[in-house]
Write a structure and sequence with these properties.
The protein contains 10 helices and 5 strands. The chain is α/β, with parallel strands linked by helices and 268 residues long. The protein has 2 domains: 3-72 and 224-257, no CATH class; 78-219, Rossmann fold (3-Layer(aba) Sandwich), CATH 3.40.50.620. Helix 4 (63-73) crosses helix 10 (235-257) and helix 8 (172-183) crosses helix 9 (200-209).
Length: 268
């Protein structure tokens, strides 16, 4: 098994355990089991109590937004001026299995990537347009994102032959590498990168590492400009934001340690 495949598999397995929502639920379950034993009863009770308090804190406050805010504020959006040679959108905004089951393009909470990309493609008819995203699933690699993206962009008014599709990448590193091999951007060309604001620091760092300078165009904001830890009765959404933000911070650190970015927190 080669290193990229092993890295991909390990990242999926470890995230399944250490994602904040998963980790807290597993901690409650483990604590409950220990609580019922004579030897570990006290440890189990403490673990259940700690995990329950942390779960309530995450679900009832804006702590997730506080973790996400530095990521989303890192690259402010600026409308690109002058000549634009290309526009590239990273995958991650679609639900291929649901699309396959229902026969209708299904988007997720990052749908603004599709909308922002379509808008830029319409406004810059001279620019090449690229979608990059295969399948980031550990199981179900047959469900490729390009099928859903084609259908969604067609509904948004973008003809199928207007966009080039890269459908083999499994993560952001491969997004950059495979897309660069496909379109061979020249040093003097100006390319816009469209992805979620929270994902932009890691994405820009990776594109820089492969020698591809891009103009950041963040979309899909999940936080307000000044996030504060007030009570927020959006239980599931608070947990989703924290999960996504922690994934990005872990990804930034891991990619930096692997040499896939030149900085632990790339900036403008």
């Amino acid at each position: 098994m080669d290193a990229p495949v092993l890295s991909f598999i390990l990242s999926k397995l470890l995230w399944g355990v250490f994602a904040p929502g998963n980790a807290l639920v597993l901690a409650v379950a483990l604590g409950t089991v220990l609580w019922r034993t004579r030897r570990w009863q006290r440890a189990g009770r403490r673990l259940v109590t700690l995990a329950s308090v942390m779960l309530l804190l995450v679900m009832y406050t804006g702590v997730g937004a506080l973790v996400a805010l530095p990521l989303e504020n890192r690259f402010p959006r600026a409308e690109p001026e002058g000549r634009i040679d290309g526009i590239i959108m990273l995958g991650g905004a679609v639900n291929p299995p649901i699309t396959a089951d229902r026969g209708d393009p299904s988007l997720n909470e990052a749908a603004e990537r599709i909308l922002g990309f379509a808008d830029l493609v319409r406004r810059h008819p001279e620019a090449k347009a690229v979608f990059t995203g295969g399948s980031g699933r550990l199981l179900g690699q047959e469900y490729k994102e390009d099928v859903t993206a084609r259908a969604a962009l067609l509904q948004a008014g973008i003809p199928a032959d207007r966009v080039l599709y890269e459908a083999e990448s499994r993560n952001t590193w491969e997004n950059a590498v495979f897309s660069k091999e496909m379109v061979k951007p020249q040093p003097e060309e100006r390319w816009i990168l469209v992805t979620s604001a929270m994902h932009m620091p890691r994405s820009v760092g990776i594109f820089r590492a492969v020698g591809w300078e891009v103009i950041p165009y963040p979309v899909d904001y999940r936080t307000r400009i000044g996030a504060k830890p007030w009570l927020r009765f959006e239980f599931g959404q608070n947990l989703v934001i924290l999960d996504d933000a922690v994934r990005e911070w872990i990804g930034l650190t891991a990619y930096w340690l692997m040499g896939r970015t030149e900085s632990p927190f790339p900036g403008p």
